Amino acid sequence: MYTYSYPRAALTVDAIVVAKNNKQKYILLIERGRGPFKSKWALPGGFIEMDETLEQACIRELHEETGLQVNKMEQFRTYDALNRDPRHRTISVVFSVELDELRAVTGSDDASQAKWFAVNDLPELAFDHQQILDDFFLSKF
Fold this sequence. Notes:
With 141 residues, this protein is of the alpha+beta class. The chain is built from two helices and seven strands.
């Protein structure tokens, strides 16, 4: 594999999972088990692997961190602010999926826990994930 003599950005994916229950909308979040932002809530997601598409990476990360399996996701938007991750330059492609009902989830991999939150009662979020959700709800609902 070729090695570049200059720094390159890391590429990640994040999943927005919306579910309905009794006419209320919920968002699936994970509690981070590692730094940065250990113990803060965030969208499920992570770094892509070299042999997968962005959508495949998002579906994999969602399953690894929450146990939730989906077959298809829709690309929402790309986030590339310069300081959105304190570790290094990170660009995230965000995908979404809407479910007809709440499904059982459990935190695993590098997520301490996974939990559904009512859209109008979200905890403080890590990274720029509150901005991502604000943008998503402005554009979709």
